[in-house]
Write a structure and sequence with these properties.
single chain; alpha/beta; six-stranded mixed β-sheet
């Protein structure tokens, strides 16, 4: 479903990724690890279509991200859900409105929006907080809302960039378990993280980057320093 073939990306004289090759199949859960500056964020941005590779080929399902045009890129991004480290919720919108916004951007009809939002909030265990504002929620609850926003519209791929970075370990485990629950529904889930305890506990596939190179690709892997 996701295929990188000898992908390189440069920013001026800086090589962010070099000759990176891997495949991720439907329904896989993958941890992306590596030190700061290793290329994790660049790799995620390439999957999101925010960057084009300088060399190599990226295919996600039937979309060739190496050559995709702007109109097709907008359609492609509707197949992706994104979870951010800092939540990126709008403080003066309610929980319901924050989640619904993702669907309104895609011009979903209002009756469909209501159904999708409430189903997503129920899945993350916060259906009863729909009318609250972000300032009324804990960090873990805020990230659950971020996940609800990511899964509305039934995307095929969930990308989580350091989703537990601002959370304590116990809350972080709850968030990762929720992402695993979503993965069990058949979604591809890719989690970029520095949290070695979570990676070691989950025993899922691990891709490790270092200085732009993919140096580890291991099933049931562990965090490598």
């Amino acid at each position: 479903m996701i295929k990188f073939e000898k992908v390189s990306k440069n920013f001026g004289t800086l090589t962010a990724l070099e000759e990176v090759t891997f495949e991720i199949g439907s329904g896989e859960f993958v941890f992306l690890i590596g030190p700061s500056g290793s290329g994790k964020t660049t790799l995620l941005n390439l999957i999101l279509g925010n960057y084009h590779p300088d060399k190599g080929e990226i295919k996600v399902a039937n979309t060739d991200l190496s050559t995709v045009k702007k109109k097709k890129l907008t359609e492609y991004r509707r197949r992706l859900g994104i979870v951010f480290q800092d939540f990126k919720l709008i403080n003066d919108l309610t929980v319901y409105e924050n989640v619904a916004l993702a669907l309104r951007v895609m011009n979903f009809p209002e009756d469909k929006i209501s159904q999708e939002v409430m189903e997503a909030l129920e899945m993350v265990g916060l259906k009863d907080r729909a009318e609250d504002f972000p300032s009324q929620l804990s960090g873990g609850e805020l990230q659950r809302i971020g996940i609800a926003r990511a899964i509305v519209g039934d995307p095929e791929i969930i990308i989580a960039d350091e989703p537990t970075g601002n959370l304590d370990l116990e809350t972080a485990k709850q968030i990762i378990n929720l992402l695993k629950k979503i993965n069990d529904l058949g979604k591809i889930v890719i989690v970029a993280t520095h949290n070695f305890e979570i990676v070691n506990n989950m025993k899922e596939r691990v891709l490790k980057l270092d200085k732009g190179h993919l140096i580890t690709d291991k099933e049931k892997g562990k965090y490598q320093f």
